[in-house]
Amino acid sequence: MTTEVPPPAAPDEDWLSLDGQVCFSLHAASRAFNGVYRVLLKDLGLTYPQYLVMLVLWEHGRTPVKRLGELLRLDSGTLSPLLKRLETAGLVRRERSARDERSVEIHPTEEGTALRERALQVPHRIATATGFTLEEIQTLRTTLNRLTTALDATTLNTTESP
């Protein structure tokens, strides 16, 4: 019967190397993704953050701005100018909620809804650009979602401490 021997612990200095940082690997991958998205979204006339807004609206339809910010993990200071640019481009409309005047809802215009058809090619081209199989992409997404949940829980715990 063989037992696995754990690898020797890395010296403390190795933990501080740039290449040893998970956060840097995520940062570098994010920048690489943004570069690919920049090229693919140019034909749609969207930036990556605008694309994310449109994804939510295509999926959910009319959405309160507050909920949109929650889904995209964006604060109102970042979201407001983004929505103004999309509205100026004629892709979305902002309106006061009929149920609650304090709430503003956002929804795609006819032009914004039509843009969805042209955007259908983006996920396929991104998947191709990664060189990953569909299974690998799903596994990566699941792992990143677990990481986000764990980090959110840690952040919550540290902000609740005195």
Automatic annotation (TrEMBL):
Gene3D superfamilies linked: Winged helix-like DNA-binding domain superfamily/Winged helix DNA-binding domain
SMART domains xrefs: HTH_MARR
Tree of life domain: Bacteria
UniProt-listed InterPro entries: HTH_MarR-typ, MarR/SlyA-like, Transc_reg_Sar_Rot_HTH, WH-like_DNA-bd_sf, WH_DNA-bd_sf
Chief site of localization: cytoplasm
Annotated compartments: Cytoplasm
The HTH marR-type domain, residue ranges: 19-149
SUPFAM superfamilies: Winged helix' DNA-binding domain
Keywords attached to this entry: Cytoplasm, DNA-binding, Transcription, Transcription regulation
Pfam assignment, any one: Staph_reg_Sar_Rot
UniProt-recorded name of the protein: MarR family transcriptional regulator
Organism: Streptomyces similanensis
